Amino acid sequence: MRKLIPKKDNKKDRMNFVEYWAEYVKTHSDDEWSSQQNILIDSQIKNARSLRLSREDYLKLKSNNA
Amino acid sequence: MEYNKEKKEIILNKKLSELDMLVLDFINVLNKHADYVIISGYVSIILGRARATEDIDLFIRKMDKNKFLKLYEDLIKNSYWCLNSDNPEEIYDYLIDNFAVRFAKKDEAIPNFEVKFPKTEIDEETFKDCIAVKMPEGSIKISSLEIQIAFKKYYLKSDKDLEDAKHIEHIFKDKIDMEKVYKYKRILEKR
């Protein structure tokens, strides 16, 4: 796999990483990429559960952000 | 991950995240009552994108109130609740009035399923133009890659959406029907 060349602009650098990761997904087994992806996703769910946000608070947050 | 464009299916052997397991659990209930298609962020995530999400967006086919009441009852029986109301008739009215309603596991708010009825031509099209993602643990239906790209790239256009579109474009580069993407782009531009 090619090395990830950093970009100075944050937006371009993020997009650069998106392409890099997509290439990783393409060239590695489902098992390999998903193990890494799951660390990110499972930790978010764990955090969300520990927050114990009520449905009222959640909907209020959503409508404030809309 | 293998995409068979003719069969409109993706064979996926990923290790399931807690989010994937929740999606399969919810779809298992939903499938008994309604046709559905998953759209937006989770489509990119199930196809490998390195990000999390707080909600899974999906369309369900319009149904009459009695059918919806049965779906609601089954969701409650399977430990889900609606974030918007505990009154199923009120929830149905929201859907009919083209609002999205959210379901989550009881006493939780995140992650949740943002459910809506299709309201536009392109929303209806997602049912005809969808892909089955087949995993050893179960299957789900997602919107086509072309609809997903067109929506994210030409309609929603936030940084996150553009990144989601880029991820799919890069992974399925040779299998994406760009003519179809532009067709959807033209429809979306008229909105």
Overall description:
- Chain A has 66 residues and is mostly helical.
- Chain A has a domain of 37 residues.
- In chain A, 77% of the residues lie in helices and 0% in strands.
- Chain A has three helices and no strands.
- The model of chain A has no long low-confidence stretch (mean pLDDT 91).
- Chain B is of the alpha+beta class and 191 residues long.
- Chain B is built from eight helices and nine strands.
- In chain B, the strands form two sheets. In chain B, strands 3-4-7-6-5 form a five-stranded mixed β-sheet, with helices on both faces. Chain B has a four-stranded mixed β-sheet with strand order 1-2-8-9.
- In chain B, strand 8 and strand 9 form a beta hairpin.
- The termini of chain B are far apart.
- Chains A and B meet through helix 1, helix 2 and helix 3 of A and helix 7 of B.
Note the run of SSEs of chain B as H and E: EEHEHEHEHEEHEEHHH
What multimeric state do the chains show? heterodimer
**Secondary structure tally, helices of chain B:** 8
What share of the residues of chain A lie within helices? over 70%
Dominant shape of chain A: flat
Cα-to-Cα separation, first versus last residue of chain A: 40 Å
**Helix coverage percent of chain B:** 40-55%
**Strand count, sense and closure of the main sheet of chain B?**
5 strands, mixed
Average pLDDT over all residues of chain A: 91
Q: Which pair of chains forms the biggest interface, and how many residues does each contribute? A: A-B, 34 and 34 residues
Low-pLDDT residue intervals, each spanning 5 or more residues of chain B: none
Structural class from helices and strands of chain A?
A: mainly alpha
The total beta strand count of chain A reads 0
